[in-house]
């Protein structure tokens, strides 16, 4: 059941054109696309959040950590582009990516990936002594590029390593704080990691819902839409966002944020997200509702991290 139904891949999808239109090479745009800069910044910010939580204040070390995690996440994203070239052909969301469209060669992308990964891991190891931070970073890299990326083409079980690698960046931030400077109570970082894990599931399902049923049926890869109807997937999103909101409320009740104004703002956003999504799922123009719902889920996590860091400035 976890493997889903799969079809044997024979060539390119019907809509893929062999004759690709030449485009001018825009290196800044190309690097931004390859590194998935929006996602990499999220990952870096989550590591900074873990660091600030452990140290109970924001410092220059938080920025240094964020810079090296950003480099590591960007290198991992470039490697993911290389691994997913054939996979990306099948979906409208990804078929215009630069490697699919041959705007950069895989060897060049590989060199960029290696350079960024070495900068990230090397910087974490040198600037934050001990194997904790760099070791967790290496574990996240293996989890994402070694487990999740190849496994998603074969099994629905890929959601497990995918969720795990999303939980590790805050732990990197926590581990980077020396023991004598660290908050001793580790329940805070454990709760944060669980919140990140709970957030990963509806985020993943929202991406799935934004793809057309025709694409998902035609692609020779497993998909949850072959196991559950889309209405059931929407129900799963509401369940997981409710659990995610409850996790944030427990974090607030634990007293890990100090400003009462920020606590109320974050609490209302956590409670309001499932209600907002339920309203959007009933919206007649479903494509617009899904797009706004995806934005709301991402904004909710940005608020969680941003307000948590702002609380300690």
How would you describe this structure to a colleague?
By secondary structure, the protein is mostly helical. It has two domains: 29-182, UbiA prenyltransferase (Tetracycline Repressor, domain 2, Orthogonal Bundle); 185-313. Helices cover 69% and strands 0% of the residues. It has helices at residues 27-34, 37-55, 60-83, 85-88, 106-127, 131-151, 159-175, 187-210, 213-218, 230-253, 260-281, 286-310. The longest helix is centred in the last third of the chain and has 25 residues, at 286-310.
Question: Features of this protein?
Answer:
313 residues; mainly alpha; 69% helix; globular; 2 domains; Tetracycline Repressor, domain 2
Brief digest:
The chain has 313 residues and is an all-alpha fold.
Rg from C-alpha positions? 20 Å
Number of domains: 2
Estimate the helix proportion, in percent: 55-70%
What does the average pLDDT come to? Answer: 86
Q: Per CATH, which architecture of the largest domain?
A: Orthogonal Bundle
Coarse structural class: mainly alpha
Question: If helices are DSSP runs of H or I spanning 4 or more residues, what is the number of helices?
Answer: 12
Compute the number of strand runs: 0
Q: How far apart are the termini?
A: 48 Å
State the shape: globular
Strand percentage lies at under 5%
Order of helices and strands: HHHHHHHHHHHH
Name of the CATH homologous superfamily of the largest domain: UbiA prenyltransferase
The main pleated sheet reads as: none
Q: State the CATH topology of the largest domain.
A: Tetracycline Repressor, domain 2
